């Protein structure tokens, strides 16, 4: 039960082999994985995901980075999981991220900050439906 949030391990996380370590942190927290897939992100799909940053000077670099290799897109569920996941992930700039957070422990620079998490109820809803079809999200019911 609880709130759902969208989390994406970016290509640097996949390439460095820290997918398992990152997933463990969400599991350790108590969140329930309801969706997970590795995929090569089409450029347009990535541009749409980051459309609110379209006018920012770093937009093209950001899209190139996130499309540079496979990502792991996930949906995690739990009490206040949007805010809680952002706390697990840490500050956007890894230099400022507190040790103990994912970015604080695993990342060094803004251009390779390892992971994304939805920042509000609205963006979580939008991002979950942008990355997942309904039937890709588990209901956690038993199938015989
Ligand atoms: P994310 O949480 O995925 O949301 C927006 C992303 O934009 C952010 O993580 C960073 O990867 C990137 N970003 C934000 N600010 C900057 C910046 N000043 N320079 C480069 N990339 C940035």
TrEMBL record:
EC number(s) from the headed UniProt entry: 2.7.4.6
Pfam family of the protein (one): NDK
Keywords assigned: Kinase, Transferase
Residues that span the membrane, as ranges: none
A molecular-function term among this protein's GO annotations: nucleoside diphosphate kinase activity
Top-level taxon in the UniProt lineage: Eukaryota
GO biological process, any: UTP biosynthetic process
Residues that hold ATP according to the record: 10, 58, 86, 92, 103, 113
Domain Nucleoside diphosphate kinase-like: 2-139
Cofactor: Mg(2+)
Protein name (Swiss-Prot/TrEMBL): nucleoside-diphosphate kinase
Species per Swiss-Prot/TrEMBL record: Euplotes crassus
